[in-house]
Structures are given as structure tokens and as C-alpha cells.
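for the recovery benchmark. C-alpha cells below, seq after
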């Protein structure tokens, strides 16, 4: 008669010797302390690289190198501003206004040059004829700028209503933006012109 207290052969196996799955091995390694040394014959686990300090500190820049780096950064910033403009230049309506101004010759581009001539010619040391011509030139420039500004504003108003009927842009602000661009020399305009003189807008 078999003994009731005799264990089966399957029960005699040591549970510690049973093979573990990869997930169980990872859980067991995570539960061990950092001071734990793995048994011989097993590869030492590597420390994670993420979050560790770099092997060596970067070499500090010299004064000349830092100055050259700052100069390069300023040049890149200026080139980007020259190409894209600033926050006040954003929006399709502003782009349309710029194209309207840049596609035509404006009297305003000659305004500051004419003002310098008028300033020199109106000097009291000049003959009366020169002073009279300077005053006439000043009046012609002022009248030309006014007429040109009115024509530019009417053109912008028409195009904005046609292409952006739901625009919330204030027209007065848009007119002033275009007029200030119109009295600026073409090579000094920011953002730089994207259309040539005579192009159809």
C-alpha cells in the first residue's frame, strides 16, 4: 500500500531550478539591489546611457571665437529679417500691399533725395532763383506723394475686397503700411521685394 505521505516525483523538483521566462528574469533583476553581483558565466548588465553626463566637458570658446559666433548669429538674424520681415509684416493682406507697392515706380522713392536738394537750395546763401526752384520742387514732391498714396490705397482696397472679402484687417492700417513702404528706397525695403517693377498683381 503506498504511503499517503510520500511525495510524487514531480514535487521533488526544486522550483528554483525551473527555467524562467525573459519577463520573469527582467523582473528579478529589477528587484535585486544595486550591490548585487551576477553569478560567474553571466554577462554583466550595462548601465543605461540615457541621462548620463557626457564623457568630457566641452572646450570653452575663446574671446575671438565667441565674437565670431555672435557676429555670425547676428548676420543670420538680419538676413532672416530682411527676407521674412517681422510680426507687423505677417498676413496675406500685408503681402498683397507690399506687392502692389513693389510692382510700380513710386514718387515717394525720390522724396528724401528731393528733400535733401530742397534743404540745400533753400539756404539763405543761395540766389533767389535757386530758392524759388527749391520751393517749387518741394511742392511738386509733396503733391506727387499725396497723389501716389491715394492711387496706391485705392488699388489695395480694390484687390483686398476682391481676394479677401472676409478680411478683418483694418484698411487704414494697411494704407499707412503701404505708404510708408512706398516712400522707402526699393533696396532698403523690408521684407525685400518679391515682384519686379511692372509685374501684374
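predicted aa per position
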Amino acid at each position: 500500500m503506498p504511503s499517503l505521505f510520500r511525495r510524487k516525483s514531480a514535487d521533488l523538483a526544486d522550483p528554483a531550478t525551473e527555467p524562467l521566462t525573459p519577463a520573469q528574469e527582467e523582473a528579478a533583476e529589477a528587484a535585486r539591489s544595486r550591490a548585487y553581483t551576477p553569478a560567474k558565466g553571466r554577462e554583466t548588465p550595462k548601465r543605461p546611457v540615457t541621462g548620463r553626463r557626457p564623457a568630457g566637458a566641452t572646450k570653452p570658446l575663446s574671446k575671438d571665437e565667441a565674437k565670431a559666433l555672435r557676429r555670425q548669429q547676428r548676420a543670420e538674424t538680419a538676413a532672416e529679417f530682411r527676407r521674412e520681415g517681422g510680426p507687423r509684416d505677417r498676413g496675406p493682406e500685408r503681402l498683397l500691399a507690399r506687392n502692389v507697392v513693389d510692382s510700380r515706380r513710386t514718387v515717394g522713392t525720390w522724396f528724401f533725395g528731393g528733400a535733401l536738394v530742397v534743404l540745400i537750395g533753400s539756404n539763405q546763401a543761395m540766389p533767389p532763383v535757386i530758392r524759388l526752384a527749391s520751393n517749387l520742387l518741394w511742392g511738386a514732391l509733396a503733391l506727387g506723394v499725396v497723389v501716389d498714396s491715394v492711387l496706391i490705397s485705392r488699388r489695395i482696397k480694390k484687390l483686398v475686397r476682391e481676394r479677401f472679402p472676409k478680411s478683418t484687417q483694418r484698411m487704414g492700417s494697411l494704407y499707412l503700411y503701404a505708404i510708408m513702404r512706398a516712400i522707402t528706397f526699393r533696396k532698403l525695403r523690408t521684407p525685400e521685394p518679391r515682384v519686379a517693377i511692372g509685374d501684374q498683381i
